[in-house]
Structure formats: structure tokens, C-alpha cells
């Protein structure tokens, strides 16, 4: 756990649908109409009303973020963002992944939220290398906090040991000082 400008940053090994936070972030696809991985888990746990609301949004371009209610989830909101598909690294993937984190954090800030939990955006089906993604995630959080925000609790929720140790290292590296 690290603190910067009154915000604690935790890397957690666990299931994002169980997080009792103001918002959980969904690693969605640009249709916002559901999918596998964490997207499927979030829709299953939230119930069918989440898909109904998502249908009204008309999708979301890669790197942007959209907010919905969270229905049966313990969280209050779901922030749906779309990470890039890994395509070798020279197609703007780093910038798009940074944008997915930044735009999710900005949206949380605009709503005055205090706590937010992220999954490892793009590191599953979208194939982004985990170590590179972890450095981008930690960097985005750090840069966002420099601007000041209402957030006091940011969690990076990892679903397996490899992701957990990789994201922990990236956060340690950046926030240790
Ligand atoms: N809690 C936390 N993390 C999870 C959970 C969970 N319940 N379930 C999976 N993960 P992915 P992407 C981890 O594939 O790479 C979907 O079909 C998982 O182990 O969910 O951004 C969308 O609709 C991995 O580390 O997201 C898109 O089409 C991480 O979450 C596409 O996949 C992200 O894996 C998006 O791909």
C-alpha cells in the first residue's frame, strides 16, 4: 500500500466483482455489449440490467470510458473502458492503454468518487504484455494523482499470481520513494 496526495494505492489478488468501491472498471470491448473474461464476470454478477443500460450507450471507442450503474454488484458504478488489442507495440497500444486508465480516472473524478478498482486492462484476451501493461497502469495512476482528485483509494485487482507480482513490482517501483 502506498499513499500519494492522500490516496492509497493497493495491488490486490482477487475478484473485481467483489470489490466494495464506488466504481469498478470493466475491460470491455468497443460494443459495450459484453464478452468473456472480466467483462463476462461483471455482467454476470451485475445482472441483465447492466446490459440494458449498456445498449443505450452506443459503444465506446478504444481508450475512452463510459459510466453506468452497477445494479447487483457491491460497487456503486461501473466504468467501462476499452483497452487496445496488442498488435506488436507500434500501433499506438501504449498510448491507448494509458488513455483507458486516464479517462476512467477522470470520469471517477468528475463524479466525485473516492474509490475505484481496476482489472489488468488488455492483458487477457487482448494480449498486451503484462509487464509493459503494469508499468503503464502504475504510471497513469501516478500522473493522474499529480493533478489532485477526490480519489482516496485506488486498487489494481489481479486475477492470478503472475499479474499480482508484476503489478506489485510496477507500483513499488513508482511509489516507493
Ligand atoms: N476479476 C479481476 N480480474 C479478472 C477477472 C475478475 N473477475 N476475470 C478475469 N480477470 P480480459 P482484455 C483478468 O480478457 O484483455 C472480453 O471478452 C484476466 O485474468 O478480461 O482487456 C471483452 O469483452 C486478465 O488478467 O480483458 C473484450 O472483448 C484481465 O482480467 C476483451 O475480453 C483482463 O483480461 C478485452 O480483453
TrEMBL record:
InterPro entries: Macro_dom, Macro_dom-like. Pfam families: Macro (PF01661). Residues 1-175 form the Macro domain. CDD domains: Macro_OAADPr_deacetylase. GO terms for molecular function: deacetylase activity. PANTHER family: GANGLIOSIDE INDUCED DIFFERENTIATION ASSOCIATED PROTEIN 2-RELATED, MACRO DOMAIN-CONTAINING PROTEIN. This is Macro domain-containing protein.
